[in-house]
TrEMBL record:
Residues 26-293 form the Sulfatase N-terminal domain. The keyword Hydrolase applies. Belongs to the sulfatase family. InterPro entries: Alkaline_phosphatase_core_sf, GAG_Ulvan_Degrading_Sulfatases, Sulfatase_CS, Sulfatase_N. PANTHER family: SULFATASE, SULFATASE ATSG-RELATED. The lineage of its organism: Bacteria, Pseudomonadati, Planctomycetota, Planctomycetia, Pirellulales. CDD domains: SGSH. This is Arylsulfatase A family protein. The keyword Mitochondrion does not apply. It comes from Blastopirellula marina.
Length: 450
């Protein structure tokens, strides 16, 4: 007997839902921070900024030392998270762009299993958030900072028996940074990549204040999640990319793409664990889906790292690929990279372009970049850092074991020609597989205009 395709699909879905309902589905809570550089937290080595809630939560679960986003700007990073596909395949390449409508989004996977899928705050890219299909999407406008307290209020009052997948996205520490009320600028250690000026120190104090707010909100959401939802709750914290500092956001250096990630699941994830497994943001969707007992679709770019969480394996990926396609006319600088455990290869598709960004272009009263330019007029080291930010070679190669801050480009060193060639080949093959068109978005600024 032949069954019409729509009817067969409906029956399959009903059978799937019934089989899943027979088992206890875990609640899932994901807390996203916004523009947070991993090393700017005590959990990841900072000695001048304490993030006590990150540390407390890490003690209850697993900390990832090598988690990476797919792209270091907000919209493509979040689109990759919510589709399980890299930017070239989901269509959201430059900042402010959207994934294609026909692509299945994260909420749909879980709604089919009977979940209520809810979003508070910046989860998608601001007003794009409802387009992903959440059952509830609230307080997603730019720096709508009531989002986290409203999420807490909603969760406290929730009475539904349905399993819950809750995303809470704080706007911190995204700019504009708040006044530094309980941060002493004198205690701040200026990073190696920064130019030391009073403006830099003052800006970092405000940035630290924003991180403290994020850390507090993280703790509040974590505590209420387990108080309200019980122990069979998978909790995940991570950030969409690094902060709005030079050599961080909009770049493929580790300060731009390497991100905090902590996972807690009492009784499933051994507490107090740290892992070197390399994972990508595209892996989050299939991992959460696998945590419900399902098999993630093979057509996704992401792969479940649930076996890492459960202690069944210590490794996940051998390479991490990342892309950046620009941010309006403020940043027209497409780049691609491949990173292994030891090596990072970056390909700057148009080295004839000047690297500009909101850092260099936004000249507000408290902007720090003008102070870098002024110091570069007389200081050699400041001049080197400013020049390095604005001008990039076609290729960059870094030995991350010897040079974790990515200061010495080995791309022209004959001793590393074989490594360079291998990584070129890996990136070429991956870009071809992805259908990467290497498109330029926006109007570039040339280093040497004719």
């Amino acid at each position: 007997m032949k069954i019409a395709k729509p009817l067969f699909a409906l029956l399959t879905l009903l059978l799937l839902t019934a089989s899943v309902s027979a088992n206890e589905l875990p609640n899932i809570v994901v807390f996203l921070s916004d523009d947070h550089t991993l090393t700017d937290s005590s959990l990841y080595g900072s000695t001048d900024l304490q993030t006590p809630n990150m540390e407390r939560i890490a003690k209850a679960g697993m900390t990832f030392d090598r988690a990476f986003v797919a792209s270091p700007s907000c919209a493509p990073s979040r689109a990759a998270l919510l589709t399980g596909l890299m930017p070239s395949r989901n269509g959201a390449e430059p900042n402010h762009s959207r994934p294609r409508k026909e692509i299945k989004k994260l909420p749909a996977y879980f709604q089919e299993l009977g979940y209520e899928v809810v979003s508070f705050g910046k989860v998608g890219h601001y007003a794009q958030t409802p387009e992903y299909g959440f059952d509830i999407a609230r307080h997603f406008k730019y720096h709508e900072d009531v989002a986290v307290p409203e999420a807490l209020k909603w969760l406290k009052a929730r009475e539904s028996e349905k399993p819950l997948l809750l995303f809470v996205g704080t706007n911190w520490p995204h700019v504009p940074w708040p006044k530094a009320e309980d941060i002493d600028p004198k205690t701040i250690k200026i990073p190696l990549t920064h130019v030391h000026t009073p403006k830099t120190r003052a800006a970092r104090a405000k940035y630290y204040q924003a991180i403290k707010t994020m850390d507090r909100e993280l703790g509040e959401v974590y505590d209420l999640a387990y108080e309200k939802l019980g122990q069979d709750t998978l909790f995940l914290h991570t950030s969409d990319h690094g902060a709005q500092w030079p050599f961080s956001k909009w770049t493929l250096y580790d300060d731009g793409i390497r991100t905090p990630m902590i996972a807690v699941w009492p009784g499933k994830i051994e507490p107090g664990q740290r892992t070197d497994a390399m994972v990508s943001w595209v892996d989050i969707l299939p991992t959460l889906y696998a945590a419900t007992g399902q098999t993630p679709p093979e057509e996704l770019d992401g792969r479940s790292f649930l076996p890492v969480l459960l202690g069944e394996t210590k490794t996940h990926r051998d390479e991490i690929f990342t892309v950046h396609s620009g941010d309006g006319n403020n940043n027209v600088y497409p780049t691609r990279s491949v990173r292994t455990g030891r090596w990072k290869y970056i390909r700057n598709l148009h080295p004839e372009y000047k690297f500009l960004s909101h850092v260099t272009n936004v000249k507000k009263e408290d902007a720090y970049w003008p102070s870098w330019e002024n110091k570069a007029k007389t200081g050699k080291e400041a001049a080197r850092k400013v020049k390095r930010y604005l001008e990039r070679p076609a290729e960059e190669l870094y030995d991350l074991e010897a040079d974790p801050s990515e200061q010495t480009n080995l791309a022209t060193d004959p001793q590393h020609a074989e490594t360079l060639d291998q990584l070129r080949g890996k990136l070429d093959a991956w870009m071809k597989e992805q259908g990467d068109q290497q498109k330029v978005y926006g109007e570039p600024t040339l280093l040497n205009p004719s």
